[in-house]
Amino acid sequence: MPPSQGEAMIYCDGASLGNPSSAGVGVIFRDANILCLSVMCGGIGIATNYMAEVLAILYGLDHARRREWSRVWIISDSQAAVKAFK
């Protein structure tokens, strides 16, 4: 289900090769028409899976703030990371 007009949907994911090990994050930003607004990804060094998931959300929120998107949805496959932000 797409976000409402004026909202951005932020798909976040993070992963590490071990726990802890080399890790990275990826974030996709979409609008109400599901069009891609922006994409970001990168390595974060040595981290656990949980830390990578949390950092993906933080990077996504920071990027949204810099673009002045005040209404966002966060989508993540990590229930633990989402719960940490509630």
From TrEMBL:
**Protein's recorded name:** Ribonuclease H domain
Task: Kindly give the PANTHER family that the UniProt entry links to this protein.
Answer: OS05G0353850 PROTEIN, POLYNUCLEOTIDYL TRANSFERASE, RIBONUCLEASE H-LIKE SUPERFAMILY PROTEIN
Task: Cite the entry's keywords alphabetically.
Answer: Membrane, Transmembrane, Transmembrane helix
User: Which terms does the record give in the GO molecular function aspect?
Assistant: nucleic acid binding; RNA-DNA hybrid ribonuclease activity
* Transmembrane residue ranges: 32-61
InterPro entries in the cross-refs: RNase_H-like, RNase_H-like_dom_plant, RNaseH-like_sf, RNaseH_domain, RNaseH_sf
Matches recorded under Gene3D superfamilies: Ribonuclease H-like superfamily/Ribonuclease H
Please verify whether the record's keywords include Transmembrane helix: yes
The keyword Transmembrane appears for this protein: yes
Domain RNase H type-1 stretches = 4-86
Q: Which SUPFAM superfamilies match?
A: Ribonuclease H-like (SSF53098)
Q: What residue range is the signal peptide?
A: none
The protein's matches in Pfam families, at most eight in alphabetical order, are given as:
RVT_3
Which superkingdom heads the taxonomic lineage of this protein's source? Eukaryota
